[in-house]
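Propose amino acids for all 702 sites.
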């Protein structure tokens, strides 16, 4: 059993995602507030049944698995009291008409059809009596049908004894048991290419339950690679023939995550976060629908703001990271999750690389230079991470100072300096500088000698960034980080250059004892991610960086980089306790740079005001009702009004209704601060195609 309350399934391969059982009571663990993991053995449909569930097209953010589209406008709802009165009136009118017909008050015209369509020989016989009763039943049934439609009896019956529409809408979809001709579980794309034996093998694995959702999407992704490169056809066919559902495995050999804390639909690459509030301020088509995220909207990046304990980690960051980790196993994504040590972003076994900075037992190290071999590029990234948050500091000048040391050092020693070496060079200590100069002279690197001499000349001059850089590097030159950030090849460093591959990476920062160093490393990781995502040669993988705590991480340079991620098939998730943790000059640009904005319950009115401005206004219809007391002139009328006031305790009034169109904020700062219930959030989405979803109140506990 995992610590976050999710079921441990590391000993077996889960079946595909299906309708989850609803928990009897809400769990207390932070990460267990979502629906329990789905697709467990014996707890859901087989992959074949799962694939046959309809997934209609829908707007951004809609959970499409079994989604039933609704009308664009809410149908007019008649009050139950009015339905009852109308039904009673129509019933009385129908009974009165029948009585008039039966007793002959309206003449005998209504029995003419009986006389016309029966022979004269039947008169006075039992056959005529039987025909008469049949005709009476037809006329009576017609009256019931007509007055029933007039009085809306069926609607009243559904209103009283029928199941509410909301209950029906929330029922889990039932998998379709009769397969369509192009059954996705039958692998028609392989059959069309002549790989009948491979298709039969995979179809049998799907029907028997030996294939899960990750297997299906991984093999389908591999087939897309075969279509792009015909030379892969024979290896693909052989792998499927020999291994079946275990063909084309991820390099880790994993076919699923050890635990699933959220509900996923890998066909649409969606993760279910909750359900949209069914209240009146929600557009009718979205009321009660499932709310989900996918790369199509995460590619515009997401900012989430909420105080500690509002659910950012368990209800947003963890499910999103988990979804992209599953997609990495299918060969569709690369994800890097960054958080403080101890934050539940998933078990170690769910990641390919786990970097625990400051933990001597960590199997992996972090490359400060992001795998770069260009001193100028490495200097720019380091400067952004080290001093990008320093007010008045010119990052370009700091990058120049670093490049004047990194270039000569790499030319002399064939590598970049370690942390302690870089600190000594920034302090321009005599011994390391002289040794570097001598090495450059012996190797004949005269241009690099000029770079080093330029750094020596500007050291200590007004505005020199060297001392500030040295102080920041000193934060990493601590005993706790001994052995980390190694550049000599003794460790196994992770660099953002690995985003070319479908990796699952988690980086634990030492937030508790080294907060300043953690923030500096977070800024560096964001700068490295922006640079690496933009220069990837293969952008078919969706690259994603998730920060569980992005406080003091953003700089003007990294924010510009985030804006460019959309075109690079990449995105970031930035979780903040408050916008106060972002420099004031960047708060409004941040909300403008990202396409997805999320305000959790408990935000302050100051933060709410920023969101309200970002979401803008909309035209709404308002109804103003004015009550005016009725003064009667006639004695009888005054007596009736007095009696009514005595009975009801209220004076007789008339209502004047004024309907107007006014422009109002979609969500005001006060609403965001005080009207969002616990476990809820208000968020808006923008897809990479430009589709927009207005801010919606979402229940994250369902």
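Proposal:
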């Amino acid at each position: 059993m995992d610590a976050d309350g999710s079921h441990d399934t590391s000993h077996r391969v889960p079946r595909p995602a299906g309708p989850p059982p609803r928990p009897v009571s809400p769990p207390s663990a932070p990460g267990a507030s979502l629906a329990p993991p789905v697709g467990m053995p014996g707890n859901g449909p087989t992959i074949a049944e799962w694939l046959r569930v309809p997934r209609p097209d829908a707007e951004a953010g809609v959970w499409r698995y079994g989604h039933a589209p609704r009308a664009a406008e809410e149908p007019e709802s008649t009050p139950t009291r009015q339905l009852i009165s109308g039904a009673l009136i129509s019933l009385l009118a129908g009974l009165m008409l029948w009585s008039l017909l039966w007793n002959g008050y309206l003449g005998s015209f209504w029995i003419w059809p009986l006389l016309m369509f029966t022979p004269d020989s039947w008169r006075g016989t039992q056959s005529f009596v039987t025909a008469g009763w049949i005709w009476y039943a037809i006329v009576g049934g017609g009256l019931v049908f007509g007055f029933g439609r007039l009085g809306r009896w069926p609607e009243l019956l559904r209103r009283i004894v029928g199941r509410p529409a909301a209950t029906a809408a929330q029922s889990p979809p039932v998998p379709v048991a009769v397969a369509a001709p192009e059954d996705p579980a039958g692998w028609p794309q392989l059959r069309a290419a002549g790989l009948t034996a491979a298709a039969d093998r995979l179809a049998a694995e799907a029907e028997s339950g030996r294939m899960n959702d990750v297997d299906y999407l991984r093999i389908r992704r591999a087939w897309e690679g075969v279509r792009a490169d015909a030379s892969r056809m024979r290896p693909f066919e052989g792998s499927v023939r020999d291994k079946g559902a275990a063909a084309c495995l991820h390099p880790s050999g994993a076919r699923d995550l050890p635990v699933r804390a959220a509900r996923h639909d890998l066909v649409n690459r969606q993760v279910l976060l909750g359900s949209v509030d069914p209240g009146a301020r929600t557009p009718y088509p979205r009321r009660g629908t499932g709310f989900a995220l996918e790369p199509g909207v995460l590619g515009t990046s997401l900012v989430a703001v909420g105080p500690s304990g509002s659910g950012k980690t368990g209800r947003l960051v963890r499910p999103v990271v988990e979804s992209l980790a599953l997609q990495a196993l299918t060969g569709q994504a690369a994800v890097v999750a960054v958080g403080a040590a101890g934050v539940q972003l998933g078990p170690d076994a769910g990641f390919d690389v786990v970097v625990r900075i400051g933990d001597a037992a960590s199997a992996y190290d972090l490359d400060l230079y992001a795998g770069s071999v260009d001193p100028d590029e490495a200097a720019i990234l380091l400067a952004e991470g080290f001093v990008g948050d320093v007010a008045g500091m010119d990052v370009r000048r700091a990058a120049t100072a670093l490049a004047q040391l990194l270039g000569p050092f790499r030319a002399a020693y064939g590598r970049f300096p370690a942390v302690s070496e870089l600190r000594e060079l920034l302090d321009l200590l005599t011994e390391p500088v002289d040794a570097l100069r001598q090495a450059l002279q012996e190797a004949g690197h005269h241009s690099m000698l000029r770079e080093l001499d330029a750094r020596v000349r500007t050291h200590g001059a007004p505005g020199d960034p060297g001392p500030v850089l040295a102080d920041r590097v000193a934060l990493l030159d601590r005993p706790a980080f001994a052995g980390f950030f190694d550049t000599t090849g003794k460790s196994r460093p992770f660099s953002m250059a690995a985003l070319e591959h479908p990796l699952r990476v988690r980086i634990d920062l030492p937030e508790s004892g080294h907060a300043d160093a953690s923030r500096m490393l977070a800024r560096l990781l964001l700068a490295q991610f922006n640079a690496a995502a933009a220069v990837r040669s293969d952008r078919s993988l969706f690259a994603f960086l998730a920060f569980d705590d992005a406080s003091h991480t953003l700089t003007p340079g990294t924010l510009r980089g985030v804006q460019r991620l959309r075109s690079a098939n990449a995105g970031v998730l930035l979780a903040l306790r408050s916008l106060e943790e972002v420099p004031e000059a960047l708060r409004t640009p941040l909300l403008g740079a990202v396409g997805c904005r999320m305000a959790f319950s408990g935000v302050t009115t100051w933060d709410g005001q920023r969101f309200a401005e970002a979401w803008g206004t909309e035209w709404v219809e308002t109804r103003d009702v004015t009550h005016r007391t009725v003064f009667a002139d006639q004695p009888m009328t005054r007596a009736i009004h007095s009696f009514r006031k005595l009975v009801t305790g209220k004076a007789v009034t008339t209502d004047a209704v004024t309907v107007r169109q006014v422009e109002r904020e979609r969500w005001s700062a006060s609403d965001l601060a005080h009207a969002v219930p616990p476990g809820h959030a208000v968020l808006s989405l923008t897809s990479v195609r430009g589709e927009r979803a207005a801010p919606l109140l979402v229940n994250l506990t369902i």
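Residues 399-481 form one domain. The chain is about 40% helix and 15% strand.
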